[in-house]
Structure formats: C-alpha cells, structure tokens
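Table S2 (continued). Query chain:
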Amino acid sequence: MKKRVVVLLGGTSSERDVSLVSGAAVVKALNERGYEAVPFDLGSDIAALVDALTPRPDAVFNALHGSGGEDGTVQGLLELMGIPYTHSGVLASALAMDKPMTKRVVEASGVRTPKGRVVTVAEVRRDHPMARPYIIKPVAEGSTVGVHIIREGENLPALDAGWAFGDSVLCEEYIAGHELTVGVMGDKALAVTEIRFGGTLFDYTSKYTPGHAQHIIPAPVPQPVYDEAMRWALVAHQAVSCRGISRSDFRYDDKKPGTSGLYFLEINNQPGFTPVSLVPEQAQRAGISFGELVTWLVENATCDRLRS
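Corresponding output:
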C-alpha cells in the first residue's frame, strides 16, 4: 500500500510564495516515487488542518517557510496528534527561528558570529546602535526579509510604521566579503557553496529569481576556510538540535588571515526546495537526486511523542 504523505505548503508568512513552489516540487517528486502525496495549503483555519490530517497520514512533509511553519508552531500540533513529520522538532525549530538565541547557542559551541545586540525599534530610530557599517534584521524572519545594511555616512534606518516584525531588531556588524552556505543532511555536511550576486545584500529577489545569483560549488576559498565552514555547519546543526536537513549561512572576509574572517550568520532548519534552492543543489553534487532527498526526509520523519 502506498504511504500517504500530507505536504504542508503555503502558509501565511512573508515567505508564502517560496513555500508554494517548494511544496509543489515535493508533491511531484513524492508522487513520482510511489507515494500518495497530498498538498495542503495552510491558512489560519487550524480545524481545517486537523481535518486534513484525519485519518492520520503516514507522515507529514513540512514545506512551510517562515513564522507558523518553521518556528515550532505547527510542529507542536503534529506532536500532539502523534504524526511523524520531516525536519526539526519543536525546540530546534523555535530556536533556529530566533536569531539572537541561535547566536548564543552556536557561540557557546565555539563558532564565531558577528558582534551584535538586540535593541528596540525606538532605539534604532533615535540613534545608531553601533558603529557603521552594520546590518539590522528582524529577530525571527527568513529569506532576508526586512534586512537592511546601514553604510558609512548613511542616516538612521527608516523603520517606519510599515515595519511589521515586532518591537525589537537584531543589529550586527557588517562583514564584507564572500557569501557562503553549507547544507547538512543527517550527520554530514554536504558542501560549501559561494553565492555571487549584484549589490551587497543577498536579498529575497536574488535568492528566488533564476539568473539573479550565481552558485559556485565547491566554493573557491582556501581549503582551511572550506573545512572550517563544513565543520561549523555540522556543529550548529547539532548544537541547535536540528534533524533531517539544515543550511547554515556564513560570511568570509578574505582580507583577514587564515580562518579568522569566517563568521556564522544563521541556520535555516527548513531550507527551500525551489528550482534555485541550495541544499538540493548540494545534494545533487553529492550524488543524491531531488527525489532521493525528499524520500530520505519522509522515511526519516519522526515524532518525539512516538519515540518516547
């Protein structure tokens, strides 16, 4: 009998469009590999979700991105219902979504991160929170949503009434140089990719529009830097208690000696599955097809409640 897998996609976060594309690709791949994959576009009607999960499927593939999907919320419901699901559990999901807390955890594990501090929106409007250049970002968003670089000579950031990411922001020193990312699958780092793009910020458009960014794999960086990025990605994955796959993002300032210019930025506990997504690309290079990757995630789906 075919395994029935409900694929959660869409959602109500700022990353809804990305999730729709990821989820559609996952549904197609699972159906092609003999599963009965059923998409469910998650809105604000939780009763509808419970209905979609009744009778209980064999597994849930969580293809949601952003708040409500990556932050432990939907994972908590799946735990209550005793349904195995892909990717990280409740605690790891909540932690990975909280950038300041993630920084604390990985720093405690010996991983370097940019200097930073959490301040209120009111403080940012009143005065520069740190020396320029620096970056401000929401404390709990993905896909570079709401991120701004404040350069030398620039005025205070315009966090006006349109700022929709809470009362606090994370301010970090800006690290010049190369954008690197490392995917982790299970207990193994896959590869280091360098991402090249126009401008100084790998923003939402660059991430999800074909042709706006170039992925160079393996990244053309010194071998010690490459090895350290691979090691740090696995350390972060384990420190945050991620499972399944994750992707850690780094900046590398090649003007600093050795590996001293490498900085961990954040971890994504549910990387995308779009045509331009990075982890499937790294898996492909390691000899793991897209279909094999999503199958592996389904077959390794779990529920902490069922394991206890």
